[in-house]
Amino acid sequence: MRKNIVVFLLIFITIIVFAPLILASNNNMHIIPGSDEDSVNFKIYGDLKVNEEKTIIVKVYDESYIHKKIVEGKEKHYINFLVFHKNKTGWGESIQELPNYKFQGPGGFVEKTDLPLTKAGDKWIGEIDIIIKRSIKAIQVWKFKNSGERYYGINVNLSSNESELLKINARSDEGFKWNYYLYIPNNIFSSNLKYMLVEPNNTGTFTDNMDRHENAAKKIASRNPIAQKLGIPVLVPAFPRPKTIKGISEDGWLYYTQALDSKTLKIEKGLYKRLDKQLIAMIEHAKTLLKDKEIEVKEKVFMFGFSASGTFTNRFAVLHPKYLQAVATGGLNGLPILPIKSKDNKKLYYPVGVYDIKEITGEEFDDKAYQKIPQYIFMGEEDTNDTLPFPAPFSKQQKEIIKDVYNTKPIPIDEQEKKTEAEIVVDRFNIAKEIYIKEDIPAQFVIYNDVGHKLTNYMIDDIVNFFENTASSN
Fold it and tell me: Are residues 115 and 174 in the same domain?
């Protein structure tokens, strides 16, 4: 009986002590333990959202918090208002329109201002506008004439809908003539990975309806599962795959822009000139934007793509290997670009191989840099999606080279639903694998059983693991 009473008392004490904390955790404002709640009250107007200005009302009931100054011959009343940040780059535009200074305190980096007060009955009221930053850790008021042992404050607890999806408009003066989207997941500050993910867009068809291309890019960026699982930002360009291109004599749909084909790379002027370099400009712009938001990312990026966007990614890696930390590509029709100039005395023109890269881009293929990029190349064993019989992805010359080098044939368009035809794609995939091994390319070639031309959750988990494992790879 006595033992039961002791257990009951322990449970009762636990509830009394911790219940307020549990209840508080569901709110945006939390009383900091040890604070004098009766002396000062806070009220924040509006939900706490990143980079939006919010008004905070402070009501002071205890004059020991107040200090006085003579300003223009009049006595003014103030309190010390502080914003704590998680890192030294956290300050900037938190406290608005008031003199403030920064210092490093025991709880991190601090931004402080004297908040003016006006008398209102039995209390003093101060009002301050701040911009909520991701880095904000706490907001506090310190007692004047005190070493700081007693204070009142709130923790700024941003909710799980903190994720941001930003649309960045084209900036020709900065090197990109199309919009891009930047998704910043809500768990970015809890992630140890300091990389940005780049995923090219894939509309799935050609059209001059730019809204379709924009919406497809936005959909890829929004709540991107790989970025969300890794806790890193993702950049998605909104490159169109047009039906017509101004200034081009041929039909625009013959330029497979979203797969970075050779025709696209050879466009010499206009909006479609060097989409690969436009993407690099977007990456550099996004790095600066993230830095302004106090989000640290490394110089090199992760890159991922599936189907047409996978083809873009696979080819971009050959063109610009120095920008990449690791690459994952899937659904490539068994035809990843071969990192060699010739095979069996046949010149492998881009994008079959790298023979004429210098002629197209003005820069030699950097095989040494390319050999340092870990790659994850995958497909489903039932994938019969084959671009070889279509007119846009490859020229006639390139198609003949592919047929010879891979000892393959196109899968007829009307037979691409037959699983039995998948063996053609798998055979190409394995031939490419052997060439990558021979050239010392650190690539994993993976075939998933019972999967066609689609990206599954299981694949996504493997891709996430791949990027995690290659984050520190040399």
Answer: no
